[in-house]
Amino acid sequence: MSTHAAPQTLVDKIWRQHVIRELSDGRTLIHIDRHFLHDGTNRQAFDGLRRIKRPVRNLDLTWAVVDHILSTLPGRTGESHPPGIERIHALRDNCRQFNLKLFDTDDPQQGIAHVIAPELGITLPGCTLVCGDSHTATNGGLGALAWGIGTTEVMHVVATQSLLVRKQKQLRINFNGRIGAGVSSKDMILYFMSKHGVTAGAGCTVEYAGPAIRALPIEARMTICNMSIEFGSRCGIVAPDDTTFEYIANRPYAPKGALWDRAVAEWRTLGSDADAQFDREVDIDCNAIGPQVTWGNTPQDAVAIDEALPDPATVADSARRQALERAYNYMNLTPGRTLEGVPIDIAFIGSCTNSRLSDLDAAAQVIKGHKVAKGVTALAVPGSMAVKAAAEAKGLDKIFIEAGFEWRNAGCSMCVGSNGDLVPPGKRSISTTNRNFEHRQGPHSRTHLAGPAMVAAAAVSGCITDVRKLLS
Amino acid sequence: MEPFKVVTGIAAPMLMPNINTDAITPMAAGRSTSVDLGKMMFNNWRYNLDGSEIPDFILNRPPFRQSKMLVAGENFGCGSSRERAVWALMKFGIRCVIAPSFADIFRENSYQNGLLPVAISAADCAALGASLEHVSDPTLTVDLERCIVRALDGREIPFSVPAERRDALLKGLDEIDVILSMEADIAAYQQRERSARPWLFPEPR
Ligand code: SF4
Q1: Strand pairing partners for B78?
Q2: Could you tell me the mean pLDDT of each successive run of 10 residues in chain A, 472 residues long?
Q3: CA distance A106 to A83
Q4: Angle at which helices B84-92 and B104-113 pack, to 10 degrees?
Q5: How much helix, strand and coil, in percent to the nearest 5, is found in chain A?
Q6: What number of CA atoms fall less than 13 Å from residue A26's CA on the CB side?
Q7: Do A202 and B101 touch (CB under 8 A)?
Q8: Quick check: helix, strand or coil at residue B126?
Q9: d(CA B197, CA B205)
């Protein structure tokens, strides 16, 4: 019998448990424990299934949800946003034909895929989970090996419950020290990217570790894992611990009774061994992190609120310099200044990055007793209908509505604008989302990424500002 | 999928880094089946808000309107996993993107569809891109059989592709057939796991 004496990482352990077969060319057939489909990209996958004349291989391991393209307005149905009707109907028809569980527009469990998979207890530590969406790594916050795939691979998973992949290199990011008041996990990951760039994780699976990670509640860990793809990593993960088990216990799809005890006993063994080897390790000092906001068009363009914007003239690499100049032009900003005081038109709180109860709570604490500034449109879009109900039970909806926010139903909304919630051309938004690309929130939209408290502070101030001034 | 052996054609230099899939196929530009993906590719860079073409944009300029290749900056295809970015490039006529590096999901999606991602050094890429400007015939050849890019001056730049990808591209093979051939292994794995880790198999509801 072989003993696995060599020290293993968290990812090694999960990987080893999921190997169906290793091929001689270095590829591995990996079992996929959970698969989520959504309205955005999956229709061609069903067409592919029909082409190869296969059913959905494991109906009990596959779920579908409407999230990207549906209206978030009060009283919405699948038909409220006309350009989305075709896709939503196609998803419904396909789910009916293939007998799949669909969280439809009127389902109280509906929400953004990466928000509902954890909150329903579908995501479990040590499981493999994929979805045709690049932010699937969000689920890594629970210790799941989760990554985003394209439509062809979606078809492969639906048909075979497996994927043919090569094991990636492993990067560990150690977040040391502790974050200060007014600083969130969103600031931690934006800060990391500002120091290490948008390709720091290319070709790597990332384990987030260190005392500052251990101190984070699950929802905040998910925010960090969510952003993994923004620096090139398909997959980010945090080792499960008691905080994780507490979060999962008693959720609808989570194991119960004796099975729960058995699962937890195994989950406790998943963490990286003390002397496990990583291909690369990076250390981040969290004491140095202030509230972050991005100024440009890649997520690495983050600065602390009191930090001057970089001067392209000092950048040696000509491609990078030109990219910075282009971003200043697109964003209509000038080097040297800070972002404090930059007027905004739109404040958006939502998306799979920051739309959970703790995010809405953090924003509500800031806006309580304030009004949304004149001329600013502010949206709060819960990540799921369950988050919305929980927020309403705490009275958060009232705080948002009284301040002048729109209080919406769950969905992707203005993160990507495919449901018609768009930032108009030339307008400036501050947003809790994950991408500040040119035109992402709508043609010629200008996006600043930040955490929920910072977006809330900007909403009530009418300009980007340091949330710590409002909190003190 | 479409096989890829040797492709010769116009190559457009687009050397900026981090060209993302939102840029290639913006969501707001329409999600319906009736959208012509080739026409909407790079929608916000190609057209003004009123739909008129932006004459300066490289793919609106002759001869680059007929491009079969792009020569791009690092981290091409970053961002969203949307495979329609690959479909849009192919619909326009692009068969190959040459860049110093690619985002993982985009590269994967490319291989699955018969679009060839060619990674060469940043220096080679910059030189190749610069050579395409201001010439009457910016035509390159990408030969997957020999794994070389032939530059305008005849120089051959080697590149590497994983053997199984090269084989699949040359023959136009779909990966699904390889996986389906291992169905017995999948079934055996699941049977084992259902008793080893039963919590991973929730009761169907
Ligand atoms: S909220 Fe945004 S990033 Fe998240 S799944 Fe939806 S569109 Fe993608």
Answers
A1: B20
A2: 76 98 95 95 89 95 96 94 92 95 96 98 98 98 98 97 97 97 97 97 97 98 98 98 98 96 98 97 98 98 97 90 96 97 98 98 97 98 98 98 98 93 97 97 97 98 97 79
A3: 19
A4: 50
A5: 40, 20, 45
A6: 7
A7: yes
A8: helix
A9: 19
Nearest atom within ligand 1 for CA of residue A350: 1
Determine the residue of chain A that is closest to B26 in CA distance: A440
Sign of the C-alpha dihedral computed for residues A428, A433, A436 and A441 taken in this order: negative
A123 phi, psi to nearest 5 deg: -75, 125
Distance to chain B for A367, nearest Cα, Å: 30
Euclidean distance between CA atoms A28 and A142, whole angstroms: 24
CB of A442 closer than 8 Å to CB of B28: yes
Neighbours of A361 (CB within 10 A): 17
Q: How deeply is A254 buried, as exposed, middle or buried, from its count of CB atoms within 10 A (0-12, 13-18, 19+)?
A: buried
- Burial class from Cβ neighbours inside 10 Å (0-12, 13-18, 19+) for residue A54 reads middle
The tokens 């768009």 sit on which residue? Answer: A422
H or E segment to which residue A448 belongs: strand A446-449
Half-sphere exposure of A346 (CA within 13 A, CB side): 26
Give me the helix-helix angle, A396-403 and A357-367, nearest 10°: 50
| Residues pairing with A447 in the sheet | A429
Residue type for B149, please?
Answer: V
Q: On the CB side of A152, how many CA atoms lie within 13 Å of its CA?
A: 22
User: B 66-105 residues with CB below 8 A of A?
Assistant: 73-75, 78-84, 86, 101, 103-105
Q: Which two structure tokens, joined as six digits, stand for A28?
A: 């591995």
Amino acid at A251: R
Tokens of A278: 């990583």
Neighbours of B154 (CB within 10 A): 6
Question: Which distant-in-sequence residues (6+ apart) come within 8 Å of B187 by Cβ?
Answer: none
The partner residue sitting opposite A253, judged by closest CB among B15, B103, B202, is: B202
Q: How many angstroms is it from A67 CA to the middle of ligand 1?
A: 8
Question: How far away, in angstroms, is A353 Cα from ligand 1 center?
Answer: 8
Ligand 1: distance of its center to the CA of A108 in Å? 19
Q: What ipTM describes this predicted complex? A: 0.95
